[in-house]
Design a protein that fits this description.
alpha+beta, 48% helix, binds protoporphyrin IX containing FE
Amino acid sequence: HYFILALCKRIKCVDGKPLEEKVCIIPGKTIFGNNFDVLNVTPGKLFELTRGWAKFSRGRSYVLHFLSTSIYNIINAEDIEELFQSQTLTTKGIMYDFLQPFLGNGLLMSHEEKWHLRRRILTPAFHFNILQTFNEIFKEESLKLLEKLNYLQHDRINVNDFINEFSLNNVCETALGVKLTGIAGDIEYRAAIHNVEAIIVERACNPLMYYETIFYLFGQYKKSKHYVEITHNFSDKIINKKRREFLQNGNRCNIDKENSYAKTRYALLDTLLIHEAQGLIDHQGICEEVDTFMFEGYDTTSTCLKFALLNLAQYPDIQKRCYQEIENLTAFENLTVFDFNKLEYLGCVIKETLRMYPPVPFIGRQCIKETVLNGLILPRNAQVNIHIIDIMRDPKHFPEPSVFKPDRFLAENTRNMHPFAFVPFSAGSRNCIGQKFAMLEIKAALVAILRNYRVLPVTHTKDLSLEYGIILRTKQNIFIKLKPRVI
Ligand code: HEM
């Protein structure tokens, strides 16, 4: 009874009971459903608004009614289980359409047959053997990061000044196999990603802008196109550099002759070029995958690293325990993937950081046909938003959810954890393909930093306002202080 002009098809209960018995219905601020609730809110306000809805619903998943769509918002582990196990609810939500000009239909965005084929092709590119070779690059880049830190003012360092470059270098050198030295434009690329995202969030907050024509005429279409071009020009340079090397090395001929590629594992871009040679993917396909992996592989890990440093700085006792775990390790250059995997407490610190500050705070799906989920009948085109951040801040599974407690992730404390309570990398068939890659990269950087420096606080969590977007951001920069360790 709250809405008159929200024209969306309603969600119903399978058993015919009133909807509000199963989920919370968020009352709209006007008679038009929730249409105007998010109108022109900033990413910071959007964060507050969505946390406010979670609080209002007292942990129950909730429904919003927009212009022509109902949105089922899942905020707890119990309700996400069925979706993550579903083989049908895998099509990404309407919001992802806004990312399409930037990422095309790469692995993140594609669905059905195209997604199956690509995921099958690309999974071996993240196999353990490949990660072992990536480990050497992560260590090399971590040492370069330390060199860079030498030149920065230790009393007040903006984490953006060294983490962003580290993270982009890593994904380009490992997955894409291309060193960025000699390729101009990485700084502009990073800034452009930020701007593309800001426009997408702004667009998402205005249901009228969902219509392409309205966005084209009255939205930030031109600006968005400009920034997307910057990102594509940069990724083109990377692909061209690799293609030249690939052809010069005669890889294609060798592989064709020996017909042995099927058994051998290659890094991502090599894999794509090999499949191009076989006619299984075209240039356009390569571009969309490279854009997808650069974006997913860069911004996510750098965000986690920044929050991890913020936490370590604020909790000296926790930092000390991490240091005790790593101080007697062999020389950094000799550390293997096994050594990094054995760092249980550091792993707990990273997990707790991901729990409290998930780099991807929410994801979305849509129903391509009428779908039954959690006892609800979701009409065709209904959207399902999965608020990863709320799921992982549920006090039922994580008592005192706002307190940073890495011990929750010690083996003895996770035995009875709900399988979908901790889902920073999503779960099920569309989970993150790069999660082991990310954990290894983050550990390498933290071990390098903590072995050489004590991290001290400048910025405190209470000084930060979080912003909701494709990636979780802070309105303010995060600063830390570094004190060299005397060994
Ligand atoms: C801390 C770091 C990371 C976090 C928190 C993270 C999180 C996620 C999440 C939540 C998804 C699901 C997205 C959705 O359903 O819409 C996802 C998918 C994906 N991630 Fe990550 N990710 C991280 C690092 C990486 C890295 C390092 C790479 C690649 C090098 C990567 C590549 C991808 C790709 C390609 C997908 C789409 C997979 C598919 O749909 O088959 N991610 N990631």
